[in-house]
Amino acid sequence: MSVTVLLVDDDAAVREALAQTLELADLHCIAAGSFVVAADHIKPEFDGVIVSDIRMPGRDGFHLLSHAQGVDPDIPVILLTGEGDIPMAVKAMGEGAFDFLEKPCAAKELLAVVERALKTRSLVLENRQLRELVESGDPAARMIFGASGLAQGLRAHVRRVAQAQGDVLVSGAQGSGISKIAEVIHLSSLRSKRPFLKRAASDLDALALGAVYTEGEGGSLFIDEIALLPAQSQMALAETLDGAPTTRLIAGTTRDLAAEMEAGRFNADLYYRLAVMPVRIPALSERPEDIPVLFRHYVAQAAEQSGQPAPPVGAQIDAALMAREWPGNARALMTEAMRFVMGMTELDRPELREVDETLGLTAHMAQVEQSLIEGALRRAQGQATEAARALKLPRKTFYDKCTRYGIKPEEFRS
């Protein structure tokens, strides 16, 4: 909840007394002696409330109320009236004031009205952000592809983490799309309309770190390869997080940060802060059934970018893709899709390009299943038990499928 109060009164003694009351209640008071000074603080992003005297020389409290409503009609404005000035109070409420108080007002009475106004302002802003989030759709569904259980779990976890608002550690293998997941977390959060900044850890000294936190105020900062952050910057970052900054940190790494910490190469305080909310991106080797889905998306994307028609992708190509290992993960698959569209890959062989229109769903799935089994055996170097475990199949079922497709595990042993 915001704790900002813009206090406007031309009487310096009254202004100082009211400001002291607000500050003693741990509220952030911005004191202004006139409408002109106050107007500089009344902006669309102002998240607090306004307390203003009505009778001021020049532009009075009613003019301020009208100005505030023009900037944001939901900003609560509390007007201060003279003792017994009931007509003025009625007019204030009729023109949209949140409430009015008679001067001089007791501290308890002032704080009660201000607290109620701050809660109202907080709810309005939160509902507004949620409405914007709904209108923007579901970034996780729009940007994280795959139909496997692991892909579905990743989308669900990203949504939960985004709403939690704490600092996040995104980890994954090279090419797995760490920066993309960081962006989805930002877009799925209430900060989605605020800045999303990306920085390489190796480029951030303590001074640059402070500057980028200021630049990203209210938004999210993604630091790629956080393990490469210089030691002094790691310490500075841990201290910054202790101060509860308004900028949310999303750190990315392809390394084992726990091992880096144990080896003395990564700040322990920083590690334990980031380890609270981890997001791990499963490699393609863990979810090969997602490869055809991802490949088709990348082919369509590459075709649109190059202005060429998207070539058809049939079961033969699916089988060939799933039979491969993808140490470069999504990035490598994206590159292969671009080459496929340009006709510069071995997938361009005529026998793979052929799309059998008569192939039914059962036959298509059989080809895919065979490719999955062969790929699992290749990764397990012919160890059937390990391959069955990777595919989450009972050993008997695995051996039955090997027999059906004429697959011999021993032929995959190096």
UniProtKB/TrEMBL annotation:
Xref: PROSITE patterns: RESPONSE_REGULATORY, SIGMA54_INTERACT_4
Pfam family, one: Sigma54_activ_2
Keyword ATP-binding: yes
Entry keyword Phosphoprotein: yes
Positions carrying 4-aspartylphosphate: D53
Database matches in Gene3D superfamilies: 1.10.8.60, 3.40.50.2300, Homeodomain-like (1.10.10.60), P-loop containing nucleotide triphosphate hydrolases (3.40.50.300)
One of the GO biological process terms: regulation of DNA-templated transcription
This protein's UniProt keywords: ATP-binding, Nucleotide-binding, Phosphoprotein, Transcription, Transcription regulation, Two-component regulatory system
Residue ranges of domain Sigma-54 factor interaction in the record: 144-342
A molecular-function term among this protein's GO annotations: ATP binding
Ranges for domain Response regulatory: 4-118
InterPro entries (UniProt xref): AAA_lid_NorR, CheY-like_superfamily, Homeodomain-like_sf, HTH_Fis, P-loop_NTPase, Sig_transdc_resp-reg_receiver, Sigma_54_int
Superkingdom per UniProt: Bacteria
Name the record gives this protein: Two-component system C4-dicarboxylate transport response regulator DctD
Taxonomic lineage of the native organism: Bacteria, Pseudomonadati, Pseudomonadota, Alphaproteobacteria, Rhodobacterales
